[in-house]
Amino acid sequence: MSILLISGTSTDVGKTIVTAALAATAVAAGRTVAVCKPAQTGIAPGEPGDLAEVTRLSGVTRTLELARYPEPLAPDTAARRAGMPLLGLAETASAIDTLRDADLVLVEGAGGLLVRMGEFTLLDLAQKIGAPVLVVAAAGLGTLNHSELTTRLLAASGVECAGLVIGSWPSEPGLAERCNRDDLPRITGEEVRGIVPAGVGKWSQERFTVTAPSWFEPKWCP
After folding, report:
1. In 3D, which of 147, 144, 134, 75 has the Cα closest to residue 108?
2. CA distance 156 to 154
3. What distance in Å separates the CA atoms of residue 215 and residue 196, rounded to the nearest whole number?
4. What is the pTM (predicted TM-score) of this model?
5. Burial code of 157-187, b = ≥16 C-beta within 10 A, e = fewer?
6. Which residues define the annotated binding site for substrate?
7. Which residues contact 159 (CB under 8 A, 6 or more apart)?
8. One digit per residue, pLDDT tens: the chain, 222 residues?
9. How many helices (H) and strands (E) does the chain have?
10. Separation between Cα atoms, residue 75 and residue 68, nearest integer Å
11. Cα–Cα distance, 40 to 66 (Å, whole number)
């Protein structure tokens, strides 16, 4: 079993779409995939969340969600406001371990690396289970600072960075986006492993799964 944690430089940078694209790419390569979203916020019971979107786009049906909170806040804040228990680090690690028969387990965090998913952050989880973290970055202004802060923290914490993926690349990139694409590896010391076009989350499953492998480096495999 290979485990890859997916974090973002902030919220709304495209983590769920990148997770779906990675799942589709691994399936296309003949691997079995499971996807875990430890904590989901801003979704009422019974409503489709991020894992439903991953399934809709990638076709991967083996998914695991551990906690769901109604308000669109950081998971620990949402849990406290709802009077619900916080996720624990040990229980989350154990839940991920139940997916070990899959070739690849993708674990999508909430927001950035230090957002608390319960009593822990994604960084704590990465240290606990010894898994690398893929960083999903924005394309526009601010991404160099956010990306370097994130990759520096991973390095200082002894956690492997699996590289960067630009989560939503505009169809007509401006000067800032074009410069950032060149500067991200130089600033962070990490490779840009993939670039996911903006708007692909609206595609059909067939189109998404056929095209997703082209968004990542040909020789890179999580």
Report:
1. 134
2. 6
3. 6
4. 0.95
5. eebebbbbbbbbbeeebeeebeebbeebeee
6. 41
7. 123, 126, 127, 132, 133
8. 799 999 999 888 999 999 999 999 999 999 999 999 999 999 888 889 999 999 999 999 999 999 999 999 999 999 999 999 999 999 999 999 999 999 999 999 998 999 999 999 999 999 999 999 999 999 999 999 999 999 999 999 999 999 999 999 999 999 999 999 999 999 999 999 999 999 999 999 999 999 999 999 988 878
9. 8, 7
10. 8
11. 8
C-beta of residue 128 within 8 angstroms of C-beta of residue 93: yes
Q: If we measure between CA atoms, which residue out of 39, 35, 23 comes closest to residue 91?
A: 39
Measure the CA–CA gap between 14 and 7, rounded to whole angstroms. 10
Task: Return the active site residues.
Answer: 37
The tokens for 26 are 């691994």
- CB contact at 8 A, 75 and 43: no
Rounded to whole angstroms, how far apart are CA atoms 192 and 194?
6
**Known binding-site positions:** 12-17, 41, 50, 108-111, 167-168
Amino acid letter, 126: A
